[in-house]
Design brief:
Elements: H1 6-28, H2 36-52, E1 76-78, E2 88-89, H3 92-105, E3 114-120, E4 123-130, E5 133-139, E6 145-147, H4 150-153, E7 170-178, H5 181-193, H6 203-211, H7 216-220, E8 225-235, H8 242-252, E9 261-263, H9 266-279, E10 287-294, H10 297-303, E11 313-317, E12 321-334, E13 340-351, E14 354-360, H11 364-370, E15 373-374, E16 377-382, E17 389-393, E18 403-404, E19 418-419, E20 429-430, H12 436-446, H13 459-467, H14 482-485, H15 493-506, H16 511-518, H17 525-535, H18 538-542, H19 546-550, H20 556-568, H21 570-581, E21 600-604, H22 612-621, E22 625-626, E23 636-639, H23 645-653, E24 657-658, H24 660-666
Parallel strand pairs: 2-11, 21-22, 21-23, 23-24
Antiparallel strand pairs: 1-6, 3-9, 3-10, 4-5, 4-7, 7-8, 10-11, 12-13, 12-16, 13-14, 15-18, 16-17, 19-20
Helix pairs in contact: 1-2, 16-17
């Protein structure tokens, strides 16, 4: 068989080089040299060549940006270096306090430079390049584990599929996926014209939803963009400063916001914050603050990290956006734990670039504090671009026909009684665990990744299952049939089979995951593990008194009251019996004997081989226990780069400190 045509191979490579260059000029440097029609002609010709000679197609070809194929799920990706969040400051005084802490953490006389960059309101995305080629894109997720969205990310034209120049052998950059305001408005208008029931709420929701489309062809049609702002891992290069890193990114063809500035003095960074704030309304994208970073990488390493954020960077948040409107009604929402939350329904009003039609009122005590009535004029606020809230009633504008907001006598979803079940609690709750609103939210929690991990059981599926009355409680999930699933919107043979397989696989989940999935108030993932290991089965836990539970270490009276009260409910006991009849009686296997039996391990700093949750799970699998704090009873501490106070405490107590390699050796992994 003859090889590919040499002339076509040369033409294909020239076309790829041209298209990459024009992508960079248009999407990164904002100085296009050709019209869209000419770009499309080049792309069509490259597609034609790759169709004639499939061997000429390359993994980084611009033709891949059109998307293709449907993904049923997004695989988890453990970040080698956690994608931490930033601490926030809301005033110049707060920012100056941060500067003082930075100076205190550096040797006397050190005068760090700073970098100020806009905090774009988008979705965090990590890009991994190996030998200059994009091999993986992952969302931030919980900071330690994200989702693989490579197929969708390659459709974003400002993300280069191949880096230019001499990039490192391995480079993982972090940045923000966003959409420009004008493009967002244009898309929403088209969306409405095409018959969509509701437009996207704001640019950030649009970006997040677009990046997680199951069909990458849909993502390819969305006007997403990307800016790099930091890096996770790098091999084959060293950056002395953050500014050097950003300059290197530009040379590789990666997009960096041109508004970012290097500040020799802190006062220059403060001036940049003021300038960005004054320019906010005229920016092409939504931004909710300025990120100020210490420029020197050595300085960053010396300052290190807290448990959740770097000490060398901080977000200076813009003042909250506020607007005045009228409360037309107060509706009640019932959550998974029965909490009845009042929500103000508003006359639609623009606030911070978004149209608001509802706002949080938190609880009925807050309504009383505000002296809020239905019909009142109020001030609403979007602080940090999150859920809006009512912050003030304008008493001088109160109409004569306002109506009081009354605490309901019964649950708005099921009609059952509500009360404040705990002393000092401000939230009213529905005590009926069979309440339909609670059941729907409980189903989603039960199926979540950290609980029973039933993939494919999302909001839309749960909503339809409830609407068709196929599922009335958690146990009914295990009675679902293929015939029932095929009546749901979008379900074909394969999708129905996949969901049934996921449900079947969840039958073998541990007791700890089952208890977590039940959603007992005041019992989180670690509390569920503690109870599962202590009691071993649901019947044993159900038989435990509140006094017995309170006496357990790390349980305490609040959790004990919640657990005992939960299992006293008749509806809960019927649910557990129903699970038993379906053959679902989860047990917690005794912690196996292994190389870490009887040992307590604490992790601190950055882990490079696995995520924190994976490391803790490995300890349990090997017979040991983990703790969030260091004490004299700690067997050893595993310290990675940027370890902080836990490392210092271990050293002061004489607790052994090891690195990841030694941990793997002790675990029998090497």
């Amino acid at each position: 068989m003859s090889g590919p045509d040499v002339s076509l191979a040369d033409e294909a490579e020239r076309l790829r080089a041209q298209l990459r260059r024009h992508d960079r000029l248009y999407y990164v440097e904002a100085r296009p040299e050709i019209a869209d029609a000419e770009y499309d002609r080049l792309l069509r010709r490259l597609k034609e060549i790759e169709s004639l000679q499939p061997d000429l197609a390359t993994p980084d070809s611009p033709t891949r940006r059109v998307g293709g194929g449907v993904s049923t799920d997004f695989q988890p990706v453990a970040h080698a270096v956690p994608m931490l969040s930033l601490d926030n400051t809301y005033s110049e005084a707060d920012l100056e306090d941060w500067r003082d802490r930075v100076l205190k953490g550096l040797p006397p006389g050190e005068k760090p430079a700073f970098v100020a960059e806009l905090k774009i309101d988008g979705l965090g995305l990590s890009l991994l390049y190996e030998n200059g080629v994009l091999v993986r894109a992952a969302t931030r997720g919980d900071g330690e584990t994200g989702e693989d969205v490579t197929a969708n990310a390659i459709t974003i034209r400002s993300i280069p599929l191949r880096l230019e120049g001499c990039p490192p052998a391995r480079l993982e950059v972090r940045g923000e996926v966003y959409v420009e305001k004008e493009a967002f408005d244009k898309f929403n208008r088209k969306w409405a014209a095409d018959g969509a029931a509701t437009p996207f709420a704001n640019p950030r929701n649009f970006a997040a939803g677009s990046l997680r489309q199951k069909d990458s062809r849909v993502t390819a049609e969305r006007p997403l963009r990307y800016f790099v702002h930091s890096y996770g891992t790098v091999e084959g290069a060293r950056f002395d400063t953050h500014w050097d890193f950003l300059a290197a990114c530009r040379s590789y063809g990666l997009p960096v916001d041109r508004r970012t500035v290097l500040c020799a003095l802190f006062d220059d960074a403060l001036a940049a914050c003021r300038r960005f704030q004054s320019q906010r309304a005229n920016l092409p994208f939504e931004a909710d603050g300025t990120v100020v970073k210490v420029d020197g990488i050595d300085h960053q390493k010396r300052l290190g990290f807290t448990f959740k954020s770097p000490r060398w960077a901080v977000a200076f948040k813009f003042p909250a956006a506020q607007a005045t409107t009228r409360v037309v009604d107060v509706e009640l929402s019932v959550g998974r734990t029965g909490a009845v939350t009042p929500v103000a329904k508003l006359e639609p009003v623009e606030c911070g670039g978004v149209t608001l039609s509802s706002a949080s009122l938190h609880n009925f005590d807050e309504i009383k504090r505000l002296d809020l009535r239905i019909g009142d004029w109020v001030v609403v606020e979007r602080a940090g671009e999150v859920i809006p809230k009512v912050i003030q009633v304008i008493g001088s504008k109160r109409p004569a026909d306002v109506r009081p907001v009354l605490v309901p006598r019964a649950c708005p979803a099921c009609g059952g009684p509500i009360d404040r079940s705990k002393e000092g609690e401000v939230i009213y709750r529905c005590g009926n665990s069979a309440c339909p609103a609670q059941v729907e939210k409980s189903l989603l929690h039960f199926a979540s990744r950290d609980a029973m991990d039933i993939q494919g059981m999302g909001d839309a599926v749960v909503g339809e299952l409830r609407a068709k009355k196929y599922v009335t409680d958690l146990a009914d999930l295990f009675r679902l049939t293929k015939a029932q699933l095929l009546t749901l919107e979008g379900f074909k043979e394969k999708k129905a089979d996949n969901l049934l397989k996921a449900i079947a696989a969840s039958r073998d989940r541990s007791l700890s995951r089952f208890l977590h999935g039940l959603g007992i108030r005041d019992v989180g993932e670690k509390g569920a593990l503690l109870l599962a290991e202590r009691f071993g089965s649901v019947p044993a836990l159900m038989g435990a008194s509140e006094e017995t539970l309170s006496a357990l270490r790390d349980v305490g009276p609040v959790m004990a009251q919640s657990v005992a009260g939960y299992f006293r409910q008749v509806t809960v006991r019927r649910l557990i019996e129903k699970f038993n009849q379906l053959g679902i009686s989860p047990m917690e296997k005794p912690r196996p004997a292994g190389p870490l039996t009887g040992q307590t391990v604490v992790f601190t700093g950055t882990l490079t081989r696995f995520s924190r949750s994976e490391a803790e799970r490995k300890v349990r699998e090997l017979g040991g226990s983990t703790s969030a704090s260091v004490s004299a009873q700690t067997s050893f501490v595993v310290a990675g780069p940027e370890a902080g106070s836990k490392l210092r405490k271990a050293q002061s107590l004489g607790v052994p400190v090891i690195d990841e390699n030694e941990f793997l050796r002790r675990s029998g992994q090497t």
